[in-house]
Amino acid sequence: MATSVHPQAQEILDGKAAAGAPPLWELTPDEARAGVEASNAMIPAGPALESVRDIVIPSQAGGMPARVYSPSDHAPGIVVYYHGGGWVVGSLDGWDPSVRALAAASGCDVVGVDYRLAPEHAFPAAADDAYDALVWVASAAGLAAGRPVVVAGDSAGGNLATVSALRARDSGGPAIVLQVLVYPVVDCDMDRRSYREYDGDDLILNRRDMRWFWDRYAPDREARVNPYASPLRAPSLAGLPAAYLITAEHDPLRDEGFAYADRLRDARVPVEHRHYGSQIHAFFSFTGVLDDADKAVSEAGTAIRAAVEPDSAGSPVDD
């Protein structure tokens, strides 16, 4: 039986309801972007780090903005992080607090990637940008400098993280020691039980929102079933890097997250799955607001540190 929403998360939902804003699926992309940025601006600033600098990553489409978060001058690994937002909304600034927190928790450099957004740039633009960023960061000209590389992201960013891992496997691309997938979008099927169960406008995300996102990211229904859009549909997940996967109970993406964890295990990919039974979609971003967000970021950081320094901290294991 599902647990009730955590009181701290319920306060966020109550505030959303009190604001009286129209549901996301009724908005234009620009209106949705402005709303998300305004909401994220209320999240407390993340921790101070040794350095934070903006860079431009070369890509097939030209220069791609990115932000490098360095907790120290001797970080043992590097994380390529893709923000959420349904491939339509989201920005480096909007995700800055939680990405800072992840850099501090992991002790690793984190590169936040400002990939192109839909509908101006539909599939496969974001996936191409995500992979280009990974290849550049891991290359001799990039930032890794021989250090272990991790891919990570939340929601649509989790999609881009695991899609980048798939592409690296398929094309003999960079070695990845861990993929951190926070309530990832991994399939275009929106008829799972969690989609039907959590379909109200009182939530952070519902089925109508996801239809709105998919219609803008991949309006071509045939493109949606491409494994680089819906990685759960990949014929095989064998050979992917170990996964640290987070799901939230009160989230339409819950069931596809569980299904992806199962598929990875079936493919003999090590999986550590953490399910937050009283949390909502997007909770990971509310660092400094939700205790569970702080806990989730801290534990993800520990998993990253274990993956990049296995001799000192162990490694993720199947739960």
Strand content: 15-25%
Q: What's the alpha carbon Rg, rounded to whole Å?
A: 18 Å
Backbone structural class: alpha/beta
| Record field, number of beta strands | 8
The end-to-end span amounts to 21 Å
The low-confidence parts are 313-317
Instruction: List the domain count as a whole number.
Output: 1
Shape: globular
CATH topology: Rossmann fold
User: Considering DSSP H and I runs of 4 or more, what fraction of the residues is helical?
Assistant: 25-40%
Number of helices: 11
Query: What is the ordering of alpha helices and beta strands?
Result: HHEEEHEHEHEHHHEHEHH
Main pleated sheet? 8 strands, mixed
Describe the structure.
The structure is a single chain. This protein is an alpha/beta fold. The chain has a single domain (about 5-315), classed as 3-Layer(aba) Sandwich (Rossmann fold), CATH 3.40.50. Helices cover about 40% and strands about 20% of the residues. The chain is built from 11 helices and 8 strands. An 8-stranded mixed beta sheet has the order 1-2-4-3-5-6-7-8, with helices on both faces. Helix 5 (about 155-170) links the parallel strand 5 (about 150-155) and strand 6. Helix 3 crosses helix 10. The chain is globular and about 50 Å long. It starts with 6 loop residues before the first helix and ends in a 6-residue tail after the last helix.
Quick structural gist:
This protein is an alpha/beta fold and 319 residues long. It contains eleven helices and eight strands.
